[in-house]
Amino acid sequence: MQVEYPKYRWSDRFLLLDMIEGLKTTFRELWKPKVTIRYPEERLEPQDRFRGMFRFSFDRCIACKLCAVACPIDIIYIDVHDETREIDGKSKKIKVLDRYDIDVKRCMFCSLCEEACPTKPKSIWLTTKTYELATYDRNDLYFNMQELEYWDDRPRFSGLDGEGEREELEAASRELPGSLPVAAEAAAPPLGGSLHSGGSPDSGGSHQGGGAS
């Protein structure tokens, strides 16, 4: 089967019509308002159905383990034991939750655990609108029952380490007359000439290895 390609006309190459056709989107988006924000000082609010960080309620949970069964990658670990308690004058056997852990670093946030939960309202839910879970240690992404229940909000950005001290030094250097900025002061050579190996500023920077005449 022979494939026939369209023939190029000399006007297409001369007028650069293909390039102009490709720049249509660029010119169309050029005049629209920008949506860029200064993250992490500014954050966009996720939609209501956004699946983010877990939240758990011990009081609502009935220890049915349906969420662990529904999890497709088995990252929910639940331990329960049976107890006999007197409720309304009658002894009843109930399940008591001992352990409810989630390995969040392996989670794909499919929300199947939330859909399988039979309680109303849900005992486990992902609509917390939190997506900032980055950490330097993988063990920090393993949450137990207490951490899931009393976890409140995403971590707030407080600036880089040492950023406040550097700003204070720069402000102090600007107040002193004739002082150099912090960056320029660090790069400035020492007084009395350059210091070489085997010499000193007072000796005019003599080099090492000069033989005595």
List descriptors.
213 residues; Alpha-Beta Plaits; two-stranded antiparallel sheet
Our measurement of the CA-to-CA distance between the termini, rounded to an integer number of angstroms, reads 92 Å
Q: Which class of the domain at 55-123 and 133-150 in CATH terms?
A: Alpha Beta
Helical residues, percent: 25-40%
| E-strand count | 5
Placed side by side, the strands forming the largest sheet appear as 2-3-5
The CATH architecture designation of the domain at 55-123 and 133-150 is 2-Layer Sandwich
Quote the CATH topology of the domain at 55-123 and 133-150.
Alpha-Beta Plaits
Query: SSE string, helix = H, strand = E?
Result: HHHEHEEHEEHHH
Summed up, the helix count is 8
Going by helix content, strand content and strand pairing, the class is alpha+beta
Uncertain regions spanning at least 5 consecutive residues: 191-213
Rg, nearest Å: 33 Å
Question: How much of the sequence is in beta strands?
Answer: 15-25%
The largest β sheet comes out as: 3 strands, antiparallel
C-alpha geometry: flat
- Mean pLDDT over all positions: 76
